[in-house]
Amino acid sequence: MTFDANPSDPDADLMAAADDIVAAFQIDGEPVRGRIVRLGPATVDEILQRHKYPDCVARLLGEMLTLAALVGASLKFDGKLIIQVQGENGLEGPIRFIVAEYRTNGALRGYANVDGVALAQLLAQNSKPTLPELIGPGLFAMTVDQGDDMDRYQGTVALEGDTLAEAAALYFAQSEQIPTRIRIACAEANGPAGRSQWRAGGALIQQVAGDSARGDTSMAWEHASILFETLEDRELVNAELSAGDLLFRLFHEDGVRLFEARPIETACTCSSDRILALLKQFGAEAAADMIEADGFIRVRCEYCNKSFDVRPEELL
C-alpha cells in the first residue's frame, strides 16, 4: 500500500502519525528512494531508561537504534542487522563500544559499554562531546546475519565524522558505494505527568544508479539532497509532526509516495534456556567460580538489563 505524503490524502492517516514505525518512500518520477523511522516512549525511551545512561550516551544509543532500523528495514530476508561503533584497543574513549540490533520482524535492542570515570572526566571538560571524543579512534561496522546456517556479512570502515549520521554516510560511500544522505536525532521531551521521555527519528535517501532507461541520475540526486539537508533535528523528534507531513514538507514540489509502515518494538532474545546453554559451555570448573555467596550463579543480560538466577545443579 502506498499513499501520497500529503495531508489532504485521505489515506495519509493510516499510519503516518504513529510512533515506532519504519516506512520506505519514493520521490515521484525521480531516481531517489528513502526510508523514515519514528521511535517513541514504547521503544527508544524504554531501552534507554533501563540503564540510566548519561544524556550524551543515551542520545548516541538512541541514534544508533534509529540507524539500525533505517538500514535494517531494507533487508529482504529473515535475519538481523547489527550496527556497532567501537574504539581501538588501548585508545578507546569513554564509550568502549555501542551496539544496536534490528531484526526483520521489527524487534529492536541495543546497549552501550561505558567507562563511567573516563566519561565524567570528559564531561567536566566538555558538556557536549562529539562522537570522536566519546569513542576515540575506532571502527564503524555493520553486520548482516541471515541465521545460524548462513554466513554473516560484515562491512567495517574507520570511524570518521563528528556525528553518527556522518560516519554512517561515509560507510555507505566507502563500503557499499551508494550515495547516501542520513539525518538522525534523539532528544528528551516532556511526557505524561511531566516525566521526561526520549524520542528519536531519522530518515535517509539513496541515489538509484543510472542506466540506459534512467540516464544520468546525478542532477536529480543533487536536487533531492539539497531539499533533504533542510531537515531539522526538532522535526525528526516532534510527536505532533507525522512521517507523511514531514516528507510532504521536504518534497511536496516533486511529490513523494510513502509506502505502508512496518511496526517496531523493543524485544530481547535472552531467555533462561539461552543462559543455561551459555553457562554449560564454560565447563564445571569455570561455572563453580561464578557461584555467589547465596549459592546462585547470576547472569545479567547487557541488552535488556534482566537478571537470571541459575542454580549450579541446573548445569548438570
Mean pLDDT: 88
Helical stretch tally = 10
Can you write the helix and strand succession as a string?
EEEHHEEEHHEEHEEHHHEEEHHEE
Task: Give the low-pLDDT segments.
Answer: 10-17
- Strand content bin: 25-35%
What is the terminal separation in angstroms?
53 Å
Number of strands: 15
Helix content: 25-40%
Structural features, described:
About 30% of the residues lie in helices and about 30% in strands. It has helices spanning about 40-50, 55-70, 115-125, 130-135, 165-175, 220-230, 235, 245-250, 270-280, 285-290, and strands spanning about 1-5, 20-25, 30-40, 80-85, 95-105, 105-115, 140-145, 155-160, 180-190, 195-205, 255-260, 260-265, 265, 295-300, 305-310. Strand 4 and strand 5 form a beta hairpin. The longest helix is centred in the N-terminal third of the chain and has 18 residues, at about 55-70.
Q: What's this entry about, in short?
A:
The protein has ten helices and 15 strands. A hairpin with a 6-residue loop joins strand 14 (297-300) and strand 15 (307-310). The chain has helices spanning 41-49, 55-72, 116-125, 131-135, 164-176, 218-228, 233-236, 243-251, 272-280, 284-289, and strands at residues 2-4, 21-27, 32-39, 80-87, 95-103, 107-114, 138-145, 153-158, 180-190, 196-207, 256-259, 262-263, 265-266, 297-300, 307-310.
Helix-strand layout with pairing:
Layout: E1 2-4, E2 21-27, E3 32-39, H1 41-49, H2 55-72, E4 80-87, E5 95-103, E6 107-114, H3 116-125, H4 131-135, E7 138-145, E8 153-158, H5 164-176, E9 180-190, E10 196-207, H6 218-228, H7 233-236, H8 243-251, E11 256-259, E12 262-263, E13 265-266, H9 272-280, H10 284-289, E14 297-300, E15 307-310
Parallel strand pairs: 6-13
Antiparallel strand pairs: 1-11, 2-3, 2-11, 2-12, 3-10, 4-5, 4-7, 5-6, 7-8, 9-10, 14-15
